[in-house]
Amino acid sequence: MRGLVVGLAALLLAAPAVAQTRFVATVTGTGPDVVLIPGLASSDDVWDATVRQLSPTHRVHTLQVKGFAGEPAGPNAEGPFLAPLVEEVAAYAAALGKPAIVGHSLGGLTAIEVAAKHPEAVGRVMIVDALPFYALIFMPNATAETVKPQAEMMRAQMAAQSQEQFVAGQDQVMGMLVKTEAARAAPKAWSAASDRTVVANAMYEDMIDDARPLLPQITAPATVVYAYDAQMGRPPAFVDGMYATAYAGLKDVKLKRVDDGFHFIMLDQPAAFAAEVAEFLK
Fold first, then answer.
1. Strands 23-28 and 100-104: what pairing?
2. Which residues touch 140 (CB under 8 Å, ≥6 apart)?
3. How far apart, in whole angstroms, are the C-alpha atoms of residue 266 and residue 154?
4. Could you tell me the CA-to-CA distances from 104 to 8, 37, 111 in Å, in that order?
5. What is the pLDDT of residues 108-131, one digit of tens each?
6. Is the pTM of this model over 0.70?
7. How far is the C-alpha of 41 from the C-alpha of 140, rounded, in Å?
8. What is the per-residue DSSP string for 72-138?
9. DSSP, res 141
10. In angstroms, rounded to a whole number, what is the distance separating the alpha carbons of residues 42 and 199?
């Protein structure tokens, strides 16, 4: 990824000749292909440890979504966000020849839709702390229609904030997403550097997009890794049940819980996350 030193020659040889209008791909290492997609307002630097883990044995493609973490917004600045991103990631994956895809949060939803809509392009998929319908977290009986007014309100509120108000609010947000206090600074900086319009629109689409009907279309082996911590205020059985119910339509899915961490599992529990990645790629 951009925070790592990558040889120019390796990049020229490894990057597939596919248009990158919605994201910027960085390629490291050689071997079987693995595509890593970060979440909402995140930098591809969130995968630094995973790149170090995999690049000795895999060709790792980190995708920096445009408009997030200081990357210029490009065409993500207006119009639909998720659907064109899914199509471009699918084209990139197809050029590689059935890579493994790992997506965190919004990147996990992207991975779900790529695997469902283009099953021929994906070898296996790992979804990290993401539900096929985000609204289930706070509204178990939600539908796209019932959650739409709230999603519209949240999008408008985010767009109306000053930069100072937005950045100040990220302290509270990151306190809920990253358990390890020392690890919160980087995600907060990524969020602050993101294009607010892109983030607001992506958040809105993430909230109203219900991918559960697409799950039966996924033919690739799938693993869902999700976080649990007692500070969430719910028993582990509740969280286990929520994920099991949400992914009921995904055949033979492996559900793997990682304890003592929040949403950014790779930052809160790096060793446990690395073990799950290794198991997934076996």
1. unpaired
2. 242
3. 27
4. 27, 6, 9
5. 999 999 999 999 999 999 999 999
6. yes
7. 25
8. --GGGGSS-SHHHHHHHHHHHHHHHSS-EEEEETHHHHHHHHHHHH-GGG-SEEEEES--SSGGGGT
9. T
10. 10
